Amino acid sequence: MGVNAEQLAEDLKGIVGEDHVHTDLFERANYADTSLPYDVEEGDLPDCVVQPADAHEISEVLKYANQHKIPVTTYGSGTSLIFGTKPKHHGISMSTERLTSLEINEEHQWLECGAGIKTGQVIKELGKLGYFLPIQTQIGSSMGGAVSINTLGHLTDNMFGRPVNHVLGLEVVLPTGEIIETGSKCIRRAAGWDLARIFVGAEGILGVITTVRMVLIPMPQTVDAVGFFKKVEEIGHMVGMMYREKFPLPMDGEFVGEKACKVGYEALNLDFPEGALAITRSMGRTKEDASRNAQEMVRLFKKAGATEAFVLDDPEVAEKVWRVRENAMRWGQEKGLKGYLAIEVNPVLPQLAEAMTELTHITEGRNDLIGETEAYLYGHVGSDSLHCLFAFPYTWSNEKMKQVVDEIWNLEKELMLKYNGVGGDWGWLPHRVPFFREKYGETAYGVIKKLKQLFDPNDILNRGNLEGEV
Amino acid sequence: MEEVQFEEDFEKYLNEGLISCEKCHFCHTVCPIVDTRITQGPFGINRAIYYGLKWNELNEELRDLVYSCTTCGKCVAMCKKVSRALPLVEIFEKAREYFLVEKMLGPMPEQVGVLKNMHVRGNPWGNPSHERTKWAEGLEVPFASKDNQVDVLYFVGCASSYDAQGQKIAKNLTRIFKTAGVNFGILENETCSGHEAKRMGETGLFAYLSEANVEMFKDAGIQHIVTGDPHSFYSFTHEYPQQGNGLKVQHYSQFLNELIEKGNLKLSRKVNKRVTYHDPCYLGRHSEIFEEPRDLIQRIPGITLVEMENARADSDCCGMGGGRMWMEPPQGLISSQAIAERRVHQALATGAEILLTACPFCNITLNDAVKSLEKEETIKVMDITELISMSL
Question: A449, A431 in Cβ contact below 8 A?
Answer without folding.
Answer: no
